[in-house]
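RECORD TYPE: protein structure
NAME: AraC family transcriptional regulator
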Amino acid sequence: MERVSGPGYRLRFGSGAAGMERLEASLVGTAFAPHRHDTYAIGMTLRGVQTFRYRGELRHCLPGEWHVLHPDEVHDGAAGTDEGFGYRIVYLDPSLVQQALGGRPLPFVADPVVRPGGMPASLAACLADIDRPLEEAERLDIALLVADALERHSGTRTARREPLALEALSRVRELIVADPVVRHSLAEFEAVSGLDRWTIARQFRAAYGTSPTRFRTMRQLDRARLLMAGGTPPGAAAQAAGFADQSHLTRMFKRAYGLTPARWTAALTARR
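PREDICTED:
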């Protein structure tokens, strides 16, 4: 974990992936000078008021709001109040977004401030825990979600006419269902389906409403719930279901059901 600090600011880099970098930053009484990235920069303000000049206008980004900056666009950054501000951000290589778009032009979002709820919940989750390593399948899914959101906010989203390879996709699905504890590689998905990884990522969500990574997590949670309902302690259930530890299970469980495993189990007991 890299930590960089200086007068009035603090930067903390989280775990990244190829073409993807995550950062948490805080600024008080100082500012970023005008600069530009060669990546998409998509962040959420966590606290305070973030201000920045972008394409000739002063913008304000409040807590819960997102900012979307196109590659090679000059911008600065400063606090709108004396209390400063904090945000988390993901930088994406345009080539990764381009692969997710399948050859369509890179979208340009003219209004860089996106209201709360305007970006995918999965992207918010990606920024909620920037220290957790990203699997390759998650990396692709984030790129697809970002590409779709960019097209939506740029007004350039077009209808997909790619026919779904349902028989091939079902083989990927069945592979996951057979043993969700196993973390299959994208190469295994390609081998069992005969599809390339980007097609799998795009079409799996279109066919089943979620990504392969999320689908596997939910099947892991199914296994953990079954075990806990039968009396297995959460720590043992987490291990048997393939989670890193009980804390990992708790985070995923609460994200899926709105309750911790302990409260969920207690609720089951209360009904008996």
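COMMENT: Residues 219-271 form a domain with the Arc Repressor Mutant, subunit A fold (CATH 1.10.10.60).
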